[in-house]
């Protein structure tokens, strides 16, 4: 079991941490508190999300720039193509380049009505993440990550379409895919098999979402088309008014997920922190990460 003999694989293990740009001073304090705890664990990068319609453009740029200058850790800026022309998106990419940001997580984004609504590209905009990756490549030599969906993107009619789309994004110049949250490892492992069978060799990094609040995370999952298995739901049943046991359960569930993946040979992990450090600190420790 690799999880018992981490020292044999420690040099191969990579983690990255995803944050969102804080909206006010209180949230910003929490953001930095979490960054200051997680950055010393030596992540490959810390990424900062982008409001689909560009509403966080300035904040995302400020946070990625400051993460880099304050901690020395590499920062990745998310970027979407919703509601913006190619020229506007290119200007954001140029802004990242000028600020010394060399990593981008390139996404199509969702319409303001949500993931279920059909995506209508800006008349002069990029129409998909694959086109965005091509556009970014024209501007600079960025390290690009794209999104992947172990349960299929809700708008992909079938697996073939979904995997073909992933292939287009990687062929356009992305180096890796980071997955949407998933709670049943079988979905991820089957997906990786499908992807490999299609000749894709790029890393498919599992996106791990600790369930710090079952109510909130099951809502997020439903909105992005990730299923919440009954057996996970049952573990949290009745814990709504017992935050301590809820937190212990959240750690146990996420730890089980990470250890299982590790034992399946997974060596790269992306954690959705929601700007909290506690669960992810513990999970990264399970992967042998220590400050310094
Ligand atoms: P795409 O890869 O473009 O695919 C979307 C759908 O369109 C797929 O079903 C695909 O098959 C289909 N499609 C693509 N090209 C074509 C074509 N030419 N013709 C027909 N169909 C096509 N959202 C944000 O707003 N901000 C973020 O910061 C953010 N970060 C994320 C981070 C991760 C790790 C993940 C997994 C998702 C993130 N998202 C974010 C959500 C993402 O924007 C949505 O999941 C969105 O619905 C799809 O984006 P995509 O990049 O996967 O799109």
TrEMBL record:
Required cofactor(s): FAD
Chemical reaction(s) catalysed: (6S)-5-methyl-5,6,7,8-tetrahydrofolate + NAD(+) = (6R)-5,10-methylene-5,6,7,8-tetrahydrofolate + NADH + H(+)
InterPro entries for this protein: FAD-linked_oxidoreductase-like, Mehydrof_redctse-like, MTHF_reductase_bac
Iron-sulfur in keyword set: no
SUPFAM superfamilies xrefs: FAD-linked oxidoreductase
EC number(s) given by UniProt: 1.5.1.54
Family (UniProt): Belongs to the methylenetetrahydrofolate reductase family.
Protein's name according to its UniProt entry: Methylenetetrahydrofolate reductase
Organism for this UniProt entry: Paradevosia tibetensis
Recorded name of the encoding gene: metF
